[in-house]
Write a structure and sequence with these properties.
six-stranded mixed sheet, disordered C terminus
């Protein structure tokens, strides 16, 4: 089962909705890790074998520019970031067979599509 780390920009109601469907989600806010640098959150997620869920496109930049090790990133690029819209779009995707493609990759979710960028984090620093 995939475990997740919800970045501080993911609404508490979204975290709750994901948990209510049985997903293991650690919330950065609940853990009092707000303001932690992206690379430090990636390191924590890697250590705990968690996939990061975020609205912050800087996570993708950190990964691709510095080749950081990770267990996966779900980057939410939604025009409407209201929690009810995030839940409506993201929950079915995370509950589907697509989750098998998240491990060690970057999944970008928008209203119109899901794109998976394969990234071999085993060769990264």
């Amino acid at each position: 089962m995939i475990k997740f780390l919800a970045d501080e920009n993911i609404a508490t109601s979204v975290v709750r909705a994901l948990r209510n469907t049985g997903l293991d989600v650690k919330d950065v806010k609940e853990s009092r890790l707000q303001g932690t640098a992206d690379q430090d959150l990636l390191r924590l997620a890697f250590t705990e074998s968690r996939v990061v869920i975020t609205h912050d496109k800087d996570f993708g930049n950190v990964l691709f520019s510095k080749r950081r090790r990770h267990k996966g990133i779900v980057l939410l690029r939604l025009n409407d970031q209201r929690p009810e819209n995030v839940i409506r779009i993201v929950l079915p995707i995370l509950r589907s067979g697509l989750t098998k493609k998240i491990a060690d990759n970057v999944m970008i979710i928008s209203e119109s599509k899901v794109v998976v960028h394969q990234h071999d984090s085993r060769t990264s620093k």
